[in-house]
Amino acid sequence: MSDAVTQTVTVPGENGLHLVPCSLIAQSASSFECEVRIRKGAQTVDAKNIFDLMSLNAGHGAELVLEAVGTAARDAVDALVALFDSGFNGHASRKAAQESH
């Protein structure tokens, strides 16, 4: 088994990790055959499980550590970083814009 690949990300969007971002994270993580986890403080969850992700209660600006171990671990972390960087494919900013109307 390969070494763990980790990277810290910041949660975008005013609403943090709600249902849609958690769903997108779980879908992306599940497309890789490696173990993928996300850590917030002392809590670590399975990134492939939407309910585990929601239990993080990660609001806007929360720092999370992405960690993957196994085949394609680097690809899994890179894909999740891109998802966070995109504001969950733009959903984080659209959701906030819709609520301000």
What do you see in this structure?
39% of the residues lie in helices and 23% in strands. The chain is α+β, with helices and mostly antiparallel strands and 101 residues long. It has one domain (5-95): HPr-like (Histidine-containing Protein, Chain: A), CATH 3.30.1340. The longest helix is centred in the C-terminal third of the chain and has 13 residues, at 73-85. The chain is globular and about 35 Å long.
Could you name the key traits of this structure?
single chain; 101 residues; alpha+beta; Histidine-containing Protein, Chain: A; four-stranded antiparallel β-sheet; 39% helix; disordered C terminus
Secondary structure: number of strands = 4
Overall, the morphology is globular
Label the CATH architecture. Answer: 2-Layer Sandwich
Q: List low-pLDDT spans.
A: 94-101
The amount of helix comes to 25-40%
CATH topology: Histidine-containing Protein, Chain: A
Distance between the termini: 50 Å
Largest sheet: 4 strands, antiparallel
Assign the structural class, choosing from mainly alpha, mainly beta, alpha/beta, alpha+beta, or little secondary structure: alpha+beta
Indicate the mean pLDDT. 90
Strand order of the largest sheet: 1-4-2-3
- CATH H-level superfamily: HPr-like
